[in-house]
Structure formats: structure tokens, C-alpha cells
Amino acid sequence: MSEKDLIKNKEHIEKNKQELLKEYPNKYLLVYKEKVINSFDTYEKAAQAGVMQFGTDENFLVYHLTETEPLNFIMEAIL
Fold this sequence. Notes:
3-stranded antiparallel sheet, 3 helices, 3 strands, 41% helix, globular
């Protein structure tokens, strides 16, 4: 799997987000080959399940499915 496959997984989630939110609100989704494999309450559990199921040589996506996207920002200190 390549970076292109990870992008496809993310696009699959974004395309089906409203439908997925009904089934998996505020869950961490384990996504592989454009398919939701399972959902978890924490990132750690989802990532661990991904490694156990697919190993470290395969790329899988752990996606936190929320109604709104988290706000990310960088704060610059003025000294």
C-alpha cells in the first residue's frame, strides 16, 4: 500500500461522512482498502488493532470521526 492508498481511504471517509456519523459518532475508525474494518473508543485501541490485523508493513488509516473537524492552530510567541 502506498500514500495514494491512504489518500483514497481518507477520501472514502469524507465522501461517506454523514452516513458513517450515524453509525460511528465520535469513534476512531480503522480503515483499510476503502473499507471501515472496525470502530474504537480510543486512537490507541484502533492503532493496536490495525497493527495486529495488518502488521507493520501495510498502511491502514485510523480516522477520528467527528461532526466537526478539530481546530488546529499554531501560536507564535512575540518576545
